[in-house]
């Protein structure tokens, strides 16, 4: 890297190979000079190489993460058309007022929230239960763990497409099963709550096993003697789960909640491909249009990149608020325990 | 460990058998039949949609528009797979995706290992602050940056060119974090110090000490990143077109269009797009599971 200038380097003490410098009045031999040079290079290396090692990540992050994120904020204050993305006209906050006046923005925000809850809560609760079971001594435990991860290996596209068929109104397997036990057929596309439930099912299916593994890892890190002393106090297995397992898992649970919340706020591929027409409206009545889809619709279907930027920036601000709330809650929890 | 504890501590307590059992709770207890039933249900739930993808791919539109839905394979599987392969341009899509996911995974693993090593084992000013930034970036979803990235791609004329997908995918804070966590415990400080005393440069330390020590974690991270890039949808969907140079996901997603889409064909495409990854998981599932769990503990 260009930053490796030796002038800034003060002599370091830990130079293992550095030989004692020759006294000033004796002219140093060639070999001593060479060693001296080597040792200086060595010191420079020790001092600057850590920065060289971490800099590629930060350069990439600035180029493809930070700069675009900030530029999104800048673009959100302009009118930018998809067909001419470099022509930007300053409009101030008008993009924001436009989307806040749009009922479909609020609809999408609401759908994102409800789909987020329907997909995250059951997913994490099931993952917790599954991890608890996987934590027993099991025959073929590796088999179960790998099987639970198979949905994670399946792409959003493949998973969404098969669930469209399984949730088909007339010939889908799920309605057939409901019919067998005497229920009416459900319209998983057109009705609001069933469609949101169906989209959430795709998310739940793909991520439950993954989260279970994360919980399992945390459970295995809980010291065994906590359970032993709880058992000595006569705690039942259920009480052990409540009073030993859950408190020890608190940071991990918080972590998965944060990650799932972020994932839920970005939901895009599942609702796009679940729509029979593969459109960006999230169903004929926008019944399962998420913010991610709304952003795509505004930017790439209606071709208003400026407005899409305003949506992206709004989503970013929402995430920051969620992050702050999370931070406060986790501090409260830590303070109380 | 547990057995040595049970005997001396509670000898006089009534039913000794029960006591011993309770003491072994949490991780050591054998699963009962109910646990196996639940696991069986989850196994079916996890695998059924995948198996049914293959079943549906082996049928045709007529059979899929009947009740009850098919539960077993029909005779069309090979035909439909072949049709999906040519229809969705899957040959090229596989090549593209392998290239994208391969380059991306190898680069991420390399960059994450050296950065993770620096964060785990080297002392430098600003280390703590920089690590906090890395963790902070994990919380910012990349989707929020797509609009300027799209502008960049349009400006550079990179639409339908693979570097448009590869470059943004190289940012992986998770990778840095993952390698750091691994190297903290897998690489003893003494070895690095010994190499330093022998006058080894930082690059020599990386090549001859860090890479060999990090190999298992590098393999797992490589597989995770390969899976992630292979399955990536939104960004490739925006900058690659189905007729240009699609990735597998873009090609498969494009199969479902038209007024009467051939459902079996769509399922065949979905199956083909998933098969390589399922194969990787079948072969290296144990290592991947281990890697995910290892990365999780200190998360």
State the domain count of chain B.
Answer: 2
Question: Could you tell me which chain pair has the largest interface and how many residues each side has?
Answer: A-B, 113 and 115 residues
Global morphology of chain A: globular
How would a crystallographer describe the biggest sheet of chain B? none
Taken as a percent bin, the fraction of beta residues of chain A is: under 5%
Number of domains of chain A: 2
Strand fraction of chain B? under 5%
What is the CATH C level class of the largest domain in chain A, in words? Answer: Mainly Alpha
User: And the CATH topology of the largest domain in chain A?
Assistant: MetI-like fold
Oligomer: heterodimer
Q: State Rg of chain A.
A: 28 Å
Given the structure, what is the number of helices of chain B? Answer: 15
Distance between the termini of chain B: 28 Å
Topology-level CATH name of the largest domain in chain B? MetI-like fold
Structure keywords:
heterodimer; A: 337 residues; mainly alpha; MetI-like fold; 2 domains; two-stranded antiparallel sheet; 12 helices; 2 strands; globular; disordered N terminus; B: 299 residues; 73% helix; 0% strand; transport (chain A); MetI-like (chain A); ABC transporter permease (chain A); MetI-like_sf (chain A); membrane (chain A)
């Amino acid at each position: 890297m260009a930053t490796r200038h030796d002038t800034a380097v003060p002599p370091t003490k830990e130079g293992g190979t550095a030989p004692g410098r020759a006294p000033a009045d004796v002219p140093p031999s060639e070999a001593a000079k060479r060693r001296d040079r080597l040792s200086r290079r060595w010191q420079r290396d020790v001092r600057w190489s850590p920065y060289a090692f971490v800099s590629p990540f930060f350069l990439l992050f600035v180029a493809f993460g930070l700069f675009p994120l900030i530029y999104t904020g800048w673009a959100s204050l302009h009118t930018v058309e998809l067909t001419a993305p470099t022509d930007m006209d300053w409009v101030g906050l008008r993009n924001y007022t436009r989307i806040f006046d749009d009922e479909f923005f609020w609809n999408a925000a609401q759908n994102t929230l409800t789909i987020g809850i329907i997909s995250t809560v059951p997913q994490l609760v099931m993952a917790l239960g599954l991890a608890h079971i996987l934590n027993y001594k099991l025959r073929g435990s590796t088999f179960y763990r790998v099987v639970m991860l198979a949905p994670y290996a399946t792409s959003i596209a493949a998973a969404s497409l098969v669930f469209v068929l399984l949730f088909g109104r007339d010939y889908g397997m799920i309605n057939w099963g409901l019919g067998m036990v005497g229920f009416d057929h459900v319209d998983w596309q057109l009705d609001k709550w069933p469609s949101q439930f169906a989209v959430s099912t795709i998310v739940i299916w793909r991520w439950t096993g993954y989260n279970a593994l994360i919980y399992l890892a945390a459970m295995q890190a809980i010291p065994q003697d906590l359970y032993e002393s709880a058992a000595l106090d006569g705690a039942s297995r259920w009480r052990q789960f409540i009073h030993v397992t859950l408190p020890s898992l608190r940071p991990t649970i918080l972590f998965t909640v944060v990650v799932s919340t972020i994932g839920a706020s970005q939901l895009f591929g599942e609702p796009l491909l679940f729509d029979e027409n593969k459109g960006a409206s999230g169903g004929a009545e926008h019944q399962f249009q998420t913010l991610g889809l709304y952003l795509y619709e505004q930017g790439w279907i209606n071709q208003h990149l400026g407005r899409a930027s305003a949506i992206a920036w709004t989503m970013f601000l929402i995430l920051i608020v969620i992050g702050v709330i999370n931070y406060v809650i986790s501090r409260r929890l830590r303070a109380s325990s | 460990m547990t057995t040595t504890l049970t005997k001396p501590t509670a000898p006089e307590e009534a039913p000794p058998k029960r006591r011993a059992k309770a003491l072994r709770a949490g991780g050591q207890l054998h699963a009962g039949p109910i646990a196996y039933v639940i696991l069986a249900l989850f196994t079916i739930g996890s695998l059924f949609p995948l198996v049914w993808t293959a079943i549906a791919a082996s049928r045709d539109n007529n059979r899929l528009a009947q009740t009850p839905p098919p539960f077993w394979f029909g005779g069309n599987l090979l035909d439909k797979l072949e049709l999906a392969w040519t229809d969705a341009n899957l040959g090229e899509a596989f090549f593209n995706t392998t290239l994208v996911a391969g380059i991306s995974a190898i680069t991420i693993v390399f960059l994450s290992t050296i950065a993770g090593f620096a964060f785990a084992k080297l002392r430098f000013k600003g280390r703590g602050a920089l690590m906090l930034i890395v963790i902070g970036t994990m919380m910012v979803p990349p989707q929020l940056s797509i609009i300027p990235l799209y502008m960049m791609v349009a400006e550079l004329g990179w639409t339908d060119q693979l570097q448009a997908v590869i470059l943004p995918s190289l940012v992986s804070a998770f990778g840095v974090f993952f390698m750091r966590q691994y190297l903290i415990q897998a690489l003893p400080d003494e070895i690095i110090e010994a190499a330093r005393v022998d006058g080894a440069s930082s690059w020599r330390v990386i090549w001859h000490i860090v890479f060999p020590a990090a190999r298992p974690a590098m393999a797992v991270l490589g597989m995770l990143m390969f899976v992630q890039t292979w399955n990536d949808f939104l960004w490739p969907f925006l900058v690659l077109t189905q007729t240009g140079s699609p990735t597998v996901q873009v090609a498969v997603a494009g199969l479902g269009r038209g007024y009467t889409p051939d459902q079996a064909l769509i399922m065949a495409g979905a199956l083909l797009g998933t098969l390589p990854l399922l194969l990787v998981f079948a072969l290296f599932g144990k290592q991947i599971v281990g890697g995910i769990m290892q990365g999780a503990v200190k998360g």
